[in-house]
């Protein structure tokens, strides 16, 4: 089983709908992240969390919200989806260490019509 | 700002040719990480560089960190079709624990 699991893997929705992407991890890491990937733009940080009580905005947080329900769970919500939120979304985790290596989930592809 | 610029955006090579991607910053980097994303896959960590002028090798891959810690490169010797994918550099953002990624270089290898 994957250490970082994202659900759903693919989702098609309509403009204005509320969408939640979920991420769970079995790595025991405190730090969790949500990134968005668009062609030619790389990976852009949406939100990140260093523990259950810590939530921080990233580069592109507008239109998104997050919830850290437990150490192992970090969900991303789009309150009212719009077409330019069509993208591939990645959850990632890291341990508090010198390396700071990120471990990514397999991604959630979201299409907003 | 805090962004890192990666060039080129795309590279097509014949199998056996060498490949290099560059990562540049206008500000000094505390560290730089490199990731590889295979087509349809997720980014996977390759290496982290921390020291000025550092050079690390992984088989056919050579990673360098510039003396001024403002640039880094990834060089692949004698590419193989298994090297196909997008290579990202990522900079640490001070002590925040954030990683800011470059735009990536997508490598295509013709057999």
Provide the descriptors you would attach to this structure in a database record.
heterodimer, A: 113 residues, mainly beta, 7-stranded mixed sheet, 4-stranded antiparallel sheet, 11 strands, 0% helix, 57% strand, B: 111 residues, 6-stranded mixed sheet, 5-stranded antiparallel sheet
Structure commentary:
The complex is a heterodimer of chains A (113) and B (111). Chain A is mostly beta strands. Chain A has no helices and 11 strands. In chain A, strands 2, 4, 5, 6, 9, 10 and 11 form a 7-stranded mixed beta sheet that branches. Chain A has a 4-stranded antiparallel beta sheet with strand order 1-3-8-7, with no helix packed on it. In chain A, 35% of the residues are buried. By secondary structure, chain B is mainly beta. In chain B, strand 6 and strand 7 form a beta hairpin. Chain B starts with a strand and ends with a strand. Chains A and B meet through strand 4, strand 5 and strand 10 of A and strand 5, strand 9 and strand 10 of B.
Q: Any chance you could write out the topology, listing elements then pairs?
A:
The complex is a heterodimer of chains A (113) and B (111).
Chain A: E1 4-7, E2 10-13, E3 19-25, E4 31-38, E5 42-51, E6 54-57, E7 65-70, E8 73-78, E9 87-94, E10 103-104, E11 108-112
Parallel strand pairs in A: 2-11
Antiparallel strand pairs in A: 1-3, 3-8, 4-5, 4-9, 5-6, 7-8, 9-10, 9-11
Chain B: E1 5-7, E2 10-14, E3 19-24, E4 32-37, E5 44-49, E6 55-58, E7 61-65, E8 71-76, E9 85-92, E10 99-101, E11 105-110
Parallel strand pairs in B: 2-11
Antiparallel strand pairs in B: 1-3, 3-8, 4-5, 4-9, 6-7, 7-8, 9-10, 9-11
């Amino acid at each position: 089983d994957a250490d970082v699991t994202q659900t759903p893997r693919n989702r098609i929705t309509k403009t204005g709908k509320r969408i939640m992407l979920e991420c769970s991890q079995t790595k025991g890491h405190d730090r969790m992240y949500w990134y968005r990937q668009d062609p030619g733009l790389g990976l852009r940080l949406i939100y990140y969390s260093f523990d259950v009580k810590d939530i921080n905005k990233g580069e592109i947080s507008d239109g998104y919200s997050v919830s850290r329900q437990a150490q192992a769970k970090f969900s991303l919500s789009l309150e009212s989806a719009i077409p330019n939120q069509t993208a591939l979304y990645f959850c990632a985790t890291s341990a508090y260490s010198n390396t700071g290596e990120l471990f990514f989930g397999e991604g959630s592809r979201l299409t907003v019509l | 700002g805090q962004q890192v610029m990666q060039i080129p955006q795309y590279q097509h090579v014949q199998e056996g040719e060498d490949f290099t991607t560059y990562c540049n910053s206008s500000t000094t980097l505390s560290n730089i990480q490199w990731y590889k994303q295979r087509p349809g896959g997720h980014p996977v960590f390759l290496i982290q560089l921390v020291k000025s002028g550092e050079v690390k090798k992984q088989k056919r891959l050579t990673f360098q960190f510039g003396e001024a810690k403002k640039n880094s490169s990834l060089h692949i010797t004698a590419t193989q079709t298994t090297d196909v994918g997008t290579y990202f550099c990522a900079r640490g953002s001070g002590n925040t624990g954030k990683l800011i990624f470059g735009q990536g270089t997508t490598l295509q290898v013709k057999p």
